[in-house]
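Appendix B. Raw example, untouched.
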Amino acid sequence: MGQGIFFYLGYSFKSLINNGQRAVLAIFCVAFGVMSLVAMQNMAESVTTVVLGDPAFRLGGQTELNRDTNLSPANIAEIARLKTDGKITAYNPAAEEYGLKLKRPGSASMAYIDKAIGVDPTIYPIVGQLRLGQGSPTSLAQAIATPGTVAVTRDIADDQGLKIGDTLVVSNDTDIAPFSLKVGGIVIATPDSAGNKIYYSLETARQLANRQDAVNYIQVNWAPGVDSAAIQAQLQNSGWRTYNASEQSADAKKGMDLFNFMLKGAGILGLLVGGIGVANTMVVLLANRQKEIAILKTLGYRRWHLFVLLGLEVGLLGLVGSLLGVALAYFVSGGLIYLFSQTGSILLETSFDFGLGLLGILIGIVTTLIFGMFAIVRASEVRPMQLLRNLPVKIRWFQTTLLALALAVPFTLVTTFVLGSIEQGIGILLIALGGLVVLGSVLGLAMWLIIKALPTFRFYFLAMARKNLARRWLVNLFAMIALFTGVLTAGFAGVVIQGAQGQVDARSPALTGYNLSVYGLASQETTLKAAFAGQGITTTQARYTALVKSVEQTTPPANNDQTFYFGNVLNGRETPWDVTLDGAAWGSDPSGVYLPDYGRDLRGTQLTITSQSGATRTVTVVGTYALKNIGSPLLSENSGLLTSKDLVTQLGGPQTRLLVAGEVGLDRLTETSTKIGQSMQDVMVVTSLDYNNYRTGRVRNFFIFAVAMAGLAILAGLVLVANTVGLAMIYRQREMGVLKAVGYTRWHVLKGLLLEYGIMALVASIGALIGVQVAVIAFSKLEASTDGILSLNLPTAVASVILALLVTLVTATMAAWQALQVRPSTLLRQET
């Protein structure tokens, strides 16, 4: 036939429009497949960029230098000379603190900070970029130049509701007294993409730590061509320790390879689900156009003409579906990236690679053509005489099998291109096909047994449902497999999250007892205890902590030549309320100190303690101590020397830290902490609820992410359910017309339909829960630590089945509703 391309395009476009609901079903399948692929691949690339980026970004420079103690001005000057000599191009002195707590005065929410970093904002960072946003100044130097100002990462700002100009308080359990900071900037991107950080200037770091030598490491970049190994060897000889970015382990890459394979594999499986939906739709669509195909063949159109006409139609369908899928992927991938970033301290930007979107459109069109060709080739094989006379069309099973295998080759090329490896491309396809065969066999056998054994109780709608299931078992099987996968994924994710939550709950202390603590300075003791009394808190205890410059052993212990590191923290008590002593009685020696119970052999040893101001004091080891199990997470097990309150406050001076702990009724806990925080803006108020909320928050975020991922798997099942029901309505129009003609209402027809798909959903969901239980048992055998932690309880199982049933029935009703409104005369006049 001599028509040009415009004729073929016009014919295909009109056919696509005339297909109506059938085309919409196929477009929706393509859109789901492309959305899954693009969203998963975009997320994989976003995470990979962070985890497998330049290791110098994660370290902060090409090499990190530190010593056994904090760095003196002379140490920093030694590294500065390397820059003067041209051996390094840049260096960044940093004062880093760990274990800080952050809270807004009067707030009921608290955050645990991964890192607090003091830097010179005029040179930081020396690798990568740090960007500010949300109304911040344009540079870090402008944001934190004033002492007492801080830049917080975006995740902290969002979690705590912080904005520019807000005041916050930071503290820790050992050496940092409550310190007020003003938010001067919000960091939206860090060099290593890690969040849960705060940045301030070196001057602020010195004030925070109450010491001039606050710098504890230096990051450097080497000049091109220098022998950095020789220079590092010289530095090591002079007491420096070095750590190079190139030394970082390759384990991260191995883990990311698996992560990428799983995400991209999930996207390909979504594409496969969409392709199966397209194949199902096209089979029914072309079955309804048999006479059209027969007339075209009678007019002289050859097979290749039909391939072009129908292929263009399928291609247009794939284009529309792919465009819709990419648009959906833009929103879905952004949501998934955000949820994933909430499971850890990662500042993932919800960016979208539009180049990847264009690639997704191309892959969507190719995949639609591959699966559409399955139906096109089968339809083009039939002789026109068979179609015009409505003779039965027999297609041999081995021809269908060979056709499916032939079309698997180009789909394998698609998976290979997406995964970047022919082994992985073939592997994911074999896994998918193997899973389809195994699941199909098991679910098909289960459905066959139910169809044979299910009594009808003289309920004719149930009898009709059973016959329809037996007649259309193969079409329903794909929907059952997808629904099974969704429920299995969601069920196992729920079991894991429940197990994790159970472990958190088991390890979480009771909220009673010492459930409120306030961190302040010893000089605030009177005011703090008055605030406690004003809130009706009568049970209180106190701890005192001081950071000293050094603790040195001045006399050797008897019969022992061991030397111990004593640290630089002094702990003080008025009475030993939270410790068990072994040795001299408390208070018997005003200059006596106790060591943690590992120092038993040092009794009688004299120590010289040098305070931050330079004052010295000689003390004697008079015994050991062990902390009692108070049962409160607010009272951490800090180590170091234990002595009297008086000695600690004398050596600690005005910066001696104070912790006052009290017991408050749970009904008043939040209210009391808020009132104390509002009345004393320069203290840190922490409750056991804050602690538990922090612990459970991570588990909750993992749960939300797992539910979102499992939701995509369930959506795949619902796509095929809707596709199957919609096609059934098209394929069974004459059946519905006859039923309506003999007196059955739309509600009767819908009742039979819901029974049919309800049985299907019941079999798939129960089978999925059996799969979850098998997985739980397997994990318990393979990993003994999970035994007793992972379990599928009855309420969860019942709720999963009910939810799967409800969602399936609602989806089936929505897919069938329009077809059920058609008059029987209209249905009976339509061709099947």
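End of appendix B.
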